[in-house]
Write a structure and sequence with these properties.
Oligomer: single chain
Number of strands: 15
Largest sheet: 7 strands, mixed
Helix content: 10-25%
Number of helices: 5
Shape: globular
Order of helices and strands: EEHEEEHEEEEEHEEEHEHE
Distance between the termini: 12 Å
Low-confidence stretches: 168-176, 185-192, 253-258
Length: about 270
């Protein structure tokens, strides 16, 4: 596979979660920010109030430059932020984030502020700019699993068909015209709404791919975050801690029990 990017992984030896009293849906909550972005396709005008607490457990409580979290984007140190600022990123914001050290005492959760500065690199590659037009759909095969657990293969003609399938703000999937990969005939026997998801094990990009990008994601088809060799080398050169890298598709290939991970191979047309 002629991969030109690497998949970024954040180590869980420094892991955090939102404090139990964090108000996700409050006036400046992250869920409100995310919902507004989803519905408008633009970054909201307000700045979300962000809080994360590093776990008390010894195996998770290091203070690395990257902090593992389910928070949107990446939680990074100020040193790491300065590196990212010198690279070409997707639509993004650097949000201040209040980081705490969690301590458990007599069954209570106590959170003590950490003085070191951290940021949430919040970047969007789904609503403001999803990069799905970079995919060569004639060379990328797709399949889905129906509610009856049948695997259905099909082709998609363009990015719009993929987008229509995953329209979240309407709360329902839109109809997509499916074709058999065997004979290119319309699969009238398959009801589109019966397909639960769209997957692929290899994404082929067309010659319109923007190689100036140093960071991106491919929504719906992959769970990974991809970085350029240029950015990866700079992170290593500056001894940034708390991350690792692999070739796209490598985790799924190496760990068969992680078959549910969306980790496709990425290839580019020469």
């Amino acid at each position: 596979m002629n991969s030109k990017y690497f998949a970024l992984s954040v180590s869980d030896e420094s892991a955090a979660e939102a404090p139990s009293n964090y108000d996700w849906y409050g006036r400046n909550g992250m869920s409100r920010y995310r919902d507004e972005l989803r519905s408008t396709g633009k970054f909201p005008s307000f700045t979300p109030l962000l809080k994360q607490a590093i776990y008390d457990d010894e195996q998770f409580n290091k203070r690395n430059d990257f902090i593992h979290s389910i928070a949107d984007g990446l939680i990074i140190s100020e040193k790491t932020k300065e590196i990212f600022k010198t690279h070409n990123l997707p639509p993004h914001n650097f949000f201040d984030i209040k980081l705490y050290q969690q301590k458990k005492w007599l069954g209570f959760e106590l959170n003590f502020p950490i003085n070191k500065k951290y940021y949430n690199l919040f970047f969007d590659t789904e609503y403001a700019n999803d990069y799905l037009d970079f995919i060569d759909y004639s060379k990328t095969k797709f399949w889905g699993i129906t509610r009856s657990k049948q695997k259905v293969t099909f082709t998609l003609e363009n990015a719009n068909q993929l987008r229509q399938f995953f329209i979240y703000f309407k709360g329902e999937k839109q109809k997509v015209k499916f074709y058999s990969t065997e004979n290119n005939e319309e699969m009238v026997s398959v009801v589109p709404e019966d397909v639960m998801n769209i997957e692929t094990d290899k994404i082929t990009f067309g010659n319109n791919f923007d190689f100036t990008l140093d960071l991106f994601r491919i929504p719906h088809l992959s769970w990974r975050t991809y970085i350029s060799p240029k950015l990866l080398n700079q992170l290593k050169k500056e001894n940034i801690t708390g991350f690792d890298s692999s070739l796209p598709g490598e985790i799924k290939t190496s760990f068969k029990n992680l078959h549910y991970i969306k980790d496709p191979f990425l290839v580019w047309e020469d």
